[in-house]
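On to our target:
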Amino acid sequence: MRQRRDRDLLAASFDRAAEVYEASRPEYPAEAVAWLTEGTAGAALDLGAGTGKLTALLVAAGFATTAVDPSPEMLRVLGERLPGVETRFGTGEDIPLPDHSQDLVVAAQAWHWVDPARAVPEVARVLRRGGRLGLLWNDRDERVDWVRRLGELIGAGDVYTGDEEEPVVGDPFGPLERHDVPWTQRLDLDGLLDLVRSRSYFITKDPDAQAAVIASVRRLHVEHPQLAGAATIELPYVTRCYRAQLAG
């Protein structure tokens, strides 16, 4: 129960950083979105849509898209960015959409916040027969030394997020397929610091601890030989993509 409570507190923290989340979090590579949506069309639900990073790509791909998120501030930013998209408050365990109304449900950077035992049947409820569930995460590539060190400094390993775990889906969905897409985000030091500020495990620290983290990342930027104060920082990612079909 404690792990679940901790996870809920981390998830709720995004209300306090919606603007910086939108400004700093990376987009999703076109190859990842194309693989997730391959062979599908019609109505799509972006579950845990946040500020609409993936929502915008679904709209551009021609889907009639609904964005659902539990954070009022995240949905406010999404609405300003994508005023034509329908937004609703909700969670993976309680989706405010009718039965069999969606052809595709996607969750970007969000499935680790849900209780799969409740979310899987709820997603299946809103999908049409043969519909698809797509999941994806942008993972920093910590095979690169400075990126691994960045994760240590910002405390990514201090709390449970589940980002790196294989997702749990199961019946009534078929087997999960996986596709990885390596790519690079280019940003400056201010962008990197904002990226740090957008993480739940930073947001929930006290102000002194936050200041110490920011100072340590600034030192990393100057002192690490792979960075050496570079004006343009190349931050490598691997986007993990998963898809599974509902029984037809």
Summary: Strands lie at 43-47, 64-69, 86-89, 102-108, 127-140, 177-187, 233-245.
